[in-house]
Amino acid sequence: MKTGEADILILPGLGDSGPEHWQRRWSARLSTARVVEQTDWHAPDRDEWVETVLEAVRMATRPVVLVAHSLGVSTVVHAAHELADTKVRGAFLAAPPDHEREGAPEATASFAPTPRDPLPFPSMLVASSDDPYCALERAEDMAAAWGSDFHVQRNAGHINPVSGHGPWPEGLMMFARLMKRLKA
Fold first, then answer.
1. Going along the chain, which residue ranges are E strands?
2. Pick from 35, 29, 104: nearest CA to 72
3. What's the Cα-to-Cα distance from 59 to each of 20, 43, 55, 112, rounded to whole Å?
């Protein structure tokens, strides 16, 4: 599938993605991409975030590809059972958080526990070897449970501007590989 054939829905995490974040940069670069805006980026409610994503999928006019970072990944996996048999053709998931780890942000408590059911569409999960919000072994376990292709970025932190990932061209190449696998 070509990017122009899909509605690319970008799902930021806790606190939103600032203008330098790769998600915002991709939304500006990809003509059919748009950021799904949540009502409250700092005090997320799982049910509200899931409903916002479901509504964005319902409003899409083409097949949908989800691009999620951090809490956006959690939102996708919580919405997954309702996304089966919809327009969603695939998901690119980056830097999943581990809500069950000690010290997880209280603001994300409603997202625990993390679902382990296989996703009903092809997906790719990209995790960092030194993400402060999720151990690599935990991310690998999530990918296996969800049926996601798993890719490791060495020493990439939380794959955000703080860790030096503004444009993130390597991520865009991985996203392109996922898109080639998807059917319109």
1. 7-11, 33-35, 64-69, 88-94, 123-128, 149-153
2. 35
3. 27, 25, 6, 28
pLDDT tens for the 184 residues of the chain, in order: 999 999 999 999 999 989 999 999 999 999 999 999 999 999 999 999 999 999 999 999 999 999 999 999 999 999 999 999 999 999 999 999 999 999 999 999 999 999 999 999 999 999 999 999 999 999 999 999 999 999 999 999 999 999 999 899 999 999 999 999 998 8
Edge-to-edge strand ranges of the sheet holding 149-153: 33-35, 7-11, 64-69, 88-94, 123-128, 149-153
Q: Please count the other Cβ atoms lying within 10 Å of the Cβ belonging to residue 37.
A: 11
pTM of structure: 0.97
> What distances in angstroms separate CA 68 from CA 17, 48, 102, 103, one per listed residue?
11, 16, 23, 22
Q: Tell me which CATH code domain 3-181 carries.
A: 3.40.50.1820
Nearest to 142 by CA among 169, 156, 123: 123
71 within 8 A of 14, measured Cβ to Cβ: yes
Each domain of the chain, given as residue ranges in start order, spans 3-181
